[in-house]
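Title: Comparing notes on inverse folding

I've been comparing how different people in this forum approach sequence design from structure. To keep things fair, I'm posting one structure and asking everyone to reply with a full sequence. Here's the target:
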């Protein structure tokens, strides 16, 4: 299954520079910019002053952390939905917007993606390699924990959480295409609707999810800082409260009457036992609901640095690592105990999920797993002179030694 920016400035400012990718496939926002045409300040020694380090935007790191906590809570609530109507309502509401929020942020920071060699390398090392590693790891874990030695290992059939990585890989590769077509969001919605009524797509690369979640990525590609600024205004915050309340009430009513598999976007309408036209209706309806609730979610994300802001850089670590515990809890029958059927048991499961995902996003955990999640793999790529030149140009200038006279 089921992924940073704070708007600054006004419409009159120059366009943002290319975003810098991070470990989780969601690039960091650009750093501070100097005035156009100004030269670097000189230090007393006469050497150029180092350029200010690029700063991550607290708003997006906060949003990613809060969204990944909701992901973990949703996984903890899933086994409870069979006997708890309240858990089912919360589950449906959270599943309406937590992945769309991640995907929209991913699209926003993919705006600068092109086929430049250094960006393609980053896409491979930061997305494709973790996908291959965790697809194999999850398959081996299922063989052992679920006593299923025949479970296949296949890079073409993503299992559990790895679908997001392969989807992000495909979406990002298509970024240049969305920049040149007219009406990209309506086109992406048409593609999503066609996928929802196409039962023959199959499970390869989880293409149903890739195509049905595509509109959120495309919306992110064309979001601008002022859009986020408006979402975080006082009016949006006030309106978001009754909207969330209405969503919970509607979910509580719809829970026993609706198949929650619609929120996964992994099946066609026919596979869910519905007529083909229901795929079109549900795709458009869920897109609208997801965009509204995603906006309500962003409205309450703090823009200043918080104690959890630093954890936003490690959300992909938490996302992929917590899956072992989430699936293990089912394999080992933790929810079969009587305590899980009580209100206090549901609250305990929620708290444990939030605590575990928080720990897995911390810098120490990132350091342990960095070689897997952010491998350098310098040996696998040819050196690109243009990329080296860009890297040197972005590094602080250093005084060079004077060449010997007889050089």
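Reply #1:
Here's my take.
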């Amino acid at each position: 299954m089921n992924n940073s920016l704070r708007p600054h400035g006004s419409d009159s400012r120059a366009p943002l520079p290319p975003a810098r990718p991070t470990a989780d496939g969601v690039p960091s926002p650009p750093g501070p910019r100097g005035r156009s045409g100004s030269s670097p300040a000189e230090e007393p020694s006469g050497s150029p002053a180092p350029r200010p380090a690029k700063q991550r935007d607290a708003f997006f790191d906060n949003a990613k952390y809060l969204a990944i906590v909701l992901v973990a809570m949703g996984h903890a609530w899933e086994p409870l939905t069979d006997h708890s109507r309240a858990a089912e309502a919360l589950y449906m509401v959270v599943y309406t917007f937590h992945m769309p929020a991640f995907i929209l942020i991913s699209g926003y920071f993919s705006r600068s993606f092109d086929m430049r060699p250094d960006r393609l390398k980053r896409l491979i090392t930061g997305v494709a390699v973790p996908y291959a590693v965790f697809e194999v790891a999850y398959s081996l874990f299922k063989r052992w924990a679920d006593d299923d030695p025949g479970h296949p290992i296949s890079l073409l059939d993503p299992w559990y959480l790895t679908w997001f990585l392969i989807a992000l890989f495909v979406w990002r590769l298509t970024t240049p295409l969305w920049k040149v077509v007219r009406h990209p969001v309506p086109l992406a919605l048409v593609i999503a609707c066609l996928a929802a009524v196409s039962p023959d797509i199959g499970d390869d690369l989880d293409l149903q999810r890739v195509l049905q979640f595509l509109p959120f990525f495309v919306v992110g590609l064309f979001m601008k800082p002022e859009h986020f600024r408006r979402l975080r205004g006082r009016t949006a915050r006030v309106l978001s409260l009754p909207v969330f309340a209405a969503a919970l009430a509607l979910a509580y009513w719809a829970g026993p009457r609706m198949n929650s598999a619609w929120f996964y976007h992994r099946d066609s309408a026919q596979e869910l036992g519905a007529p083909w036209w229901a795929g079109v209706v549900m795709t458009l309806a869920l897109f609208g609901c997801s965009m509204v609730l995603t906006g309500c979610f962003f409205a309450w994300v703090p823009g200043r640095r918080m104690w959890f802001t630093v954890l936003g850089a490690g959300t992909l670590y938490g996302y992929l690592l917590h899956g072992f515990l989430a699936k293990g809890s089912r394999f080992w029958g933790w929810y079969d105990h009587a305590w899980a059927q009580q209100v206090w048991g549901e609250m305990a499961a929620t708290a444990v999920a939030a605590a575990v995902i928080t720990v897995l996003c911390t810098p120490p955990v990132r350091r342990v797993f960095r070689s897997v999640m952010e491998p350098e793999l310098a040996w696998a790529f040819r050196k690109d002179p243009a990329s080296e030149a860009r890297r040197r140009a972005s590094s602080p200038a250093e005084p060079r030694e004077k060449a010997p006279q007889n050089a």
